[in-house]
Amino acid sequence: MIKSNQPIEYSTIGILSLAHMLNDMYSNYLPQMLPFLVAATALNATKAAILVSAFTISSSFIQPVFGYFLDRQGKRWLVHVGTLWMAIMLSLTGLVNNYLLLVLLASLAGLGTAAFHPQASTMITVVSGDRKAVLLSTFIAFGNIGFALSPLILVPLFQNYGLRATIYTIIPGIIVALLLYFFAPNNHVLRGGSTPPTLAEVWLSLLKARQELLAITSVIAIRALAYTGLLTILPLYFHEQHLSSTTSSHLVFIMLFSGAIGGILGGYISDRFGRKPLTIGSLVLATPCFYGFLYTNGTLSVVLLALAGACLLSSFSVTVVAAQEAIPNNKSLAAGLTMGFAGGIGGLLVIPIGRIGDLYGLSTSISVLFLLPLLAGLTALFMRNRPAANAQRIAAR
Question: What are the transmembrane regions (predicted)?
C-alpha cells in the first residue's frame, strides 16, 4: 500500500497533465471538422451525429473494461500507445473519402482515449501523495483547457489548409507519447507492490461499494448531461437570440475556462472539507448562477456565467477521487466507471434535450439544463461522507 507521506512527483504530474490537455483537445476534434466535412462531402446531420457518437461510444463505454484490465495488469504502456493511437487515427480522418471508413477511424480513435484516461488518472492519484483531489483537479483542468482550446487551434488549421491538414496533427501526439514513454510511472509504482486483484475480488469490492458507487455515478451522469447539453444547445440558443458567432464562442469559452479553474479550486476545497460537501454545495449553487446569467445583462451576466461554469465543474475530479476511495484496490476501474461510463451515459442523453428544444423551444431546453446541476447536487446527498484528506493528515501525525 502507498504510504500517505509519499513524496509528490510534480514533474510526472506536469507531463501527465500536458498529455491530458492534448488528449481532450483530440476528444473535441471531430466536432470541429464537421462544418468542413459538410462543405466537402455534403454530409447530413444524421451522418454527422453518427460520426461523433461512434467516437463517444468507443471512448466512454469501454473505459471500465480498460480500467479492469489495467488494475489486473498495470500496463503503463497503454497511456503512450493510447495517445499515439488516437493521434494516428484522427490524423487520417481528413484523408479518406469513404464515410464508413471515416466512422471506423472515429471508433478506433476513441479506443485511444479510453485506454489513456483510466490509467493516467490512476497514475496521478498514485504520485500525488496526500494531495490527490487538488492535483487530480489540476490534471482534469488541463483536459478542460485542451477541450476549450480545440476550436481555436483546429478551425484555423482546417480553414487555411483544408481537411488534408489533419495529417499534421499527428506531430503533437508523437511528442507527447514519447514524453509519456520516458516519464510515466512504472507498473510496480502503480500497483504499490501489491498483487493485482482477481475478478472475484473486483466483483466483491463492487458489491460492497455498490450504493456509494451508484450515488457517485448518478451525480456524474446528471452533471455530464448538463455539461454536454449546454455545449450543444447554448450556441443554438445564442444564435436564436441573434448573438454573433464570435460572441457565442467567447461565452462558451468563458464557461469552459471557468470550469477548469473551478475544478482546481474544488479539489483544494474538497481536500480540506470533504468530497461530499464540496459536491453538494457547488452543484446546488450552479443552478441559481445559470438562471442569474439568463435573466441579467452586461458584465453581471458574464460573471454569473463564469461562476456557473466554475460551480458545475468544480466537483469533476472530486467525484473521480470519491469513486477511487470507494474501491481503493481498483482505481483504474473506478476512473473508467466515472470518467467514461457515467459521463458517456450523460452525454448520450442529450438527444432527448434536443427533442425538447424542437418541440417546445430552445429556451425550454436551456431551462431544463439549468435545473440539472441542482438535481445532481440533491443526488449527491446519498454519497458517503468520508473524512477530508486534511483531517486524515492531522490524524496521521
Answer: 133-159, 165-184, 213-238, 250-270, 277-294, 300-321, 333-353, 359-383
Whole-number mean pLDDT of the chain? Answer: 81
What pLDDT does residue 318 have? 86
pTM given for the model = 0.72
Cell numbers that stand for 314 in this block:
468544480
Task: Name the grid cell of 131.
Answer: 494531495
Q: Are 94 and 33 in contact (CB under 8 A)?
A: yes
Among 190, 220, 243, the domain-final residue is 190
Phi then psi for residue 27, to 5 deg, are: -65, -25
Domain that holds residue 115: 9-190
Q: What does the DSSP assignment read for 95-134?
A: G---HHHHHHHHHHHHHHHHHHHHHHHHHHHHTSTT-HHH
Same domain, 35 and 82: yes
CA dist., res. 231 & res. 347, Å (int): 10
**How many distinct structural domains can be found in the chain?**
2
Residue with cell 454545495: 281
For position 151, which CATH number holds?
1.20.1250.20
Q: 96 with 148, same domain?
A: yes
Q: How many helices (H) and strands (E) does the chain have?
A: 20, 0
List the grid coordinates of 67.
480500467
Region 62-80 average pLDDT: 70
146 plus 181 within the same structural domain? yes
Domain end point (choices 190, 218, 243): 190
Q: How far apart are CA 187 and CA 191, in angstroms?
A: 6
Q: Are residues 181 and 213 in the same domain?
A: no
SS3 279: helix
**Model confidence over 267-277: pLDDT tens digits?**
888 888 888 99
Output the nine-digit C-alpha cell for 251. Answer: 461565452
Residue 76 makes CB contacts below 8 A (sequence gap 6+) with: 119, 123, 184, 185, 186, 187, 190
Q: Render pLDDT for 2-40 as a digit per residue (tens, 0 to 9).
A: 444 567 888 888 999 999 999 989 988 887 787 777 777
